[in-house]
Amino acid sequence: MESVVQQSRMERETKADKSDACATSSFFVERENGVCLEVYAQGQGDLLVLLPSLGRGAIDMEDISTPLAASGYRVLRPEPRGNGRSVGPLEDKTLHDWAEDIAAVVESQHAGPAFILGHAHGNWIARTLASDRPDLVRALLLLAGSAGKVPEGFEGLPISHETRAVIERCGDTSLPTDVRLRSLQEVFFAPGNDASVWLTGWNTRLLTMQTLAQKRTPVDDFFAGGVAPILNLQAQYDVIAPQRFARVLSDRLGERVTNVTIPNAAHALLPEQPEAVVAAVLDYLSKHRSR
Q1: Which residue in 170, 159, 68 sits closest to 117, CA to CA?
Q2: Which parts of the sequence belong to the AB hydrolase-1 domain (predicted)?
Q3: Mean of the pLDDT values across residues 1-19?
Q4: ∠ CA 116-172-30, rounded to 5°
Q5: Can you name the residues that pair with 36 across neighbouring β-strands?
Q6: 153 or 120: which carries more pLDDT confidence?
Q7: Rounded alpha-carbon distances, angstroms, from residue 196 to 3, 24, 57
Q8: Which of 46, 198, 272, 280 has the most CB atoms within 10 Å of its CB?
Q9: Is 143 exposed, middle or buried (0-12, 13-18, 19+ CB in 10 A)?
Q10: 49 or 20: which carries more pLDDT confidence?
């Protein structure tokens, strides 16, 4: 059985919006086996859960969470286990374990199925949740997400070993700043965009454990994302989920998938084009929200 432990609300003003409706509160969802997740919450309305990228935390979603909440959504940002005040075992896990964490968060709200938005690695967790628990997912919104497979006839891996090595350098805080900055610019940011904003916010151990969880999980376990409709929001200059792979999901899953490309952005996407992301997300949500 999952149990929910909610601490007293700790209201904080956000930088983007100081109204009470968009103030950020936090609560905890406690699971068995020593898992306890801190969840940041804003707004009221249809439930929208935001999942961050590999080795990164809920703060990455802060720039989009306030305008989404202001548009009439109950926006939750679960902190991944092993980051911030969220705790739980990380060894020998698969994406199914991470998806179970998000299932517990959704169930804690007693609000029916949720919209699940996953950025980069978060897209794999979102699709795993939708595959394992389709009853909890109204729609998937995938930001800069690698499909996990390549187009028919393509020779090679979805993400090369060389690119994976560069990603790991980005999150290795023991490396010199100039090495990490070059790596960030190479794989996460479009030409001319400021990669230094992602020098902070990394959790190297979390990155390592999540990468191993990816490797332990067969792509077919999550590829289809259950039966939910999907927004596949790609970035123009993404080298991790490149444009030549942008239609893999729609080619295989058909009309369930809506493809949109954000210009002047790469895999980081959120710090590069937050306003464009919010606009695309709200446009899609408007077609699927409660009437």
Answers
A1: 68
A2: 63-280
A3: 40
A4: 40
A5: 30, 87
A6: 120
A7: 40, 26, 17
A8: 272
A9: buried
A10: 49
The single-letter DSSP state of residue 202 is B
Model pLDDT, residue 112: 83
The whole-number pLDDT of residue 2 equals 38
* 73-78 and 46-51 strand pairing: parallel
Quote the distance between the C-alpha of residue 254 and its chain's center.
Answer: 23
For residue 63, give every residue at least 6 positions away whose Cβ sits within 8 Å of its Cβ, in sequence order, or none.
16, 270, 271, 274
Query: Global pTM?
Result: 0.92
8 A C-beta contact, residue 261 and residue 235: yes
Lowest-pLDDT choice from 32-46, 145-159, 197-211? 145-159
Structure tokens given for 171: 């999150």
Alpha-carbon separation of residue 285 from 166, 241, 289 (angstroms): 34, 23, 6
> Which helix (H) or strand (E) is 26 found in, with range?
strand 25-30
Place of tokens 């916010």: 201
Average pLDDT, the chain: 92
Closest CA to 94 of 69, 128, 130: 128
pLDDT at 12 exceeding the cut of 70: no
Q: How far is CA 197 from the centre of its chain?
A: 18
What 3-state class would DSSP assign to 94?
Answer: coil
Domains and CATH numbers, the chain: 17-154+204-287 (3.40.50.1820)
Phi and psi at 233, nearest 5°, equal -95, 105
Q: What are phi and psi of 184, to 5 degrees?
A: -60, -45
| Nearest in space to 188 (alpha carbons), one of 51, 54, 44, 36 | 54
